[in-house]
Amino acid sequence: MATEPDLLTGDFYGFQHLLDDREQDIVRRTREFLAAEVAPIANAAWAAAEFPHDLVKGFAELDIAGLAYRGERSLLTGFLAMEMNRVDPSLATFFGVHSGLAMGSVNRCGSEEQKQRWLPAMARMEQIGAFALTEPEGGSDVSGGMRTTARRVGEDWILNGAKRWIGNATFADLIVVWARDEADNKVKGFVVERGTPGFTATRIEHKVALRTVQNADITLTDCRVPEANRLQRATGFRDTADILRQTLGGVAWQAVGVMMGAYEKALAYAKQRQQFGRPIAGFQLVQDLLVRILSNVTTSLALVTRLAQLQDEGVYRDEHSALAKAVCTVRMREAVGWAREILGGNGIILDHDVARFVADAEAIYSYEGTREMNTLIVGRAITGHSAFV
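User: That's the sequence. What structure does it adopt?
Assistant: Structure tokens below.
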């Protein structure tokens, strides 16, 4: 095991010690890249709602895309997600959509030929992926309420419908689109390549969270996709759910990263901010808030660490991921609010980063399953009774 790793301020119990030396090195390299290249531009990109495409090359050089599908431990990919989110949840979300949802779909549902066709280039980030599941009129009822359709015509499929909130879609090279087959009513996956006629992606404007992420409304109008681009092992919504179960745990790690980033900024601010002739870090009420935040970070980090271990052991279930997502995002909401409180009026401007964490937390709290839906998943598991409509 690694000894004396460069622990983060927010890793109070030293969970990073659970990574081996090689994994520690990957985390360190990622942390250095984020500090040098991402942190300096994060606020400006967020304020402008523009994606910094020039940083993709740096992400690619880290060689961390799709690690979950390249034999690496869930514990490592979790720590990497945490590292990214403690600096910039927007770029972390971009990476998660590409590496988790898009690459995960190809890996889980693609044939061997399709994996060889797409995954190597996606791992090198030469081709960027997106994941199109959510629809304008559908949220939690995405399974039964999917309106996007697919119709087989010879060796092609004709897709019609609309998708909403699709991250990376305005510039992605490969968009995994989920649609209901008109013939058998089963949900199937299709890889739509950029420039395909009948596919349009329009950026969603006026967001107040994850502004750097290029979310889009997608319209599919007689969009013709070859059979070779249908994910061959996606035969129903259960396959889609398998992918979401994998990434749901990643959202819990995101939440830990967000509150850790807010904690670090609030602590640094409290140490330098002077009031009544001394740093506010020496005031009892400020220390109480800092310890509350750290408590949320530490207990949530313990939860997701155990979740990653269950994933690596192959024994985790839907309810494990659901509980982690529900608990960690609630704790995140509390933590970023307390961090903003410590900063007072400075907590609502971007200069000190906390305002960005507060806003971005709202998106992470909601996406990939609301607290209520995840509560019902856990409730069904512990009682044996389904309370879903």
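The chain has three domains: 15-123, 129-235, 238-383.
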